[in-house]
Amino acid sequence: IFNTNNASSSFEPGYYLLFYLIRLLTSNYTIYLVIQAIIFYSLFFICIFKLSNYPFISILLFYMIIVPYMGMNRQFLAMAIYAIGLIFLSRDQKLYFIISIIVAVLFHRTAVFGLLALIANKNINRKYLIAAMSIALLIAFSGIVSKVTSGLMIVSDSVSADKAKAYINSADTTSIVSTILSLTRKLIWIILLIAFDSRIQNKPKYYY
After folding, report:
1. pLDDT, tens digit, for every residue of 8-26?
2. What is the DSSP string of 58-122?
3. What is the DSSP letter of 199?
4. What is the pTM for the complete model shown?
5. How far does CA 96 lie from the centroid of its chain?
6. Rounded-to-integer distance, Cα 206 and Cα 86, Å
């Protein structure tokens, strides 16, 4: 994206605007990454120090979780904006939370799923969590997602279709062992949360 002039047709408008503004200042890709990292880490650190009782432990876990996802620039920025939205949500400022989600969507469309946080503030039975995770794993290994995505490519615009095709091709070339290791790495935090959930006392209102 940094070395092209037609990024507006391939990326969300918020991300393209940020890219364009940085491009006005410099054409150095390293500086571009540094600025983007400053924005990402600053927003997340604000969220952590506002919401966590043990911020430095939270920062440690934060780094451990994001390392496998390095390079997902648009997703990271959307997540950071969503994190700021969580501060508003913890204060019952739902309007500002929704505005944060709208801004995050301008950087990555999947941020719209962050709206689920509005209904996820209740204690969820451990059995339902395990069942949901099991169903998600079955769907992932069944190949249903690839088939559905292939069907959607027919009615999608060319850019979205190209992205979907790239994801499908990537999935087809990934071995089952790599998939299992990847899922284990991503799910371990949820598994630990479920295992120790009953031992966590004085949970804040929006803990879940």
Report:
1. 456 789 988 988 898 898 8
2. HHHHHHHHHGGGTT-HHHHHHHHHHHHHHHHHHTT-HHHHHHHHHHHHTT-GGGGGGGGGGT--S
3. G
4. 0.71
5. 19
6. 9
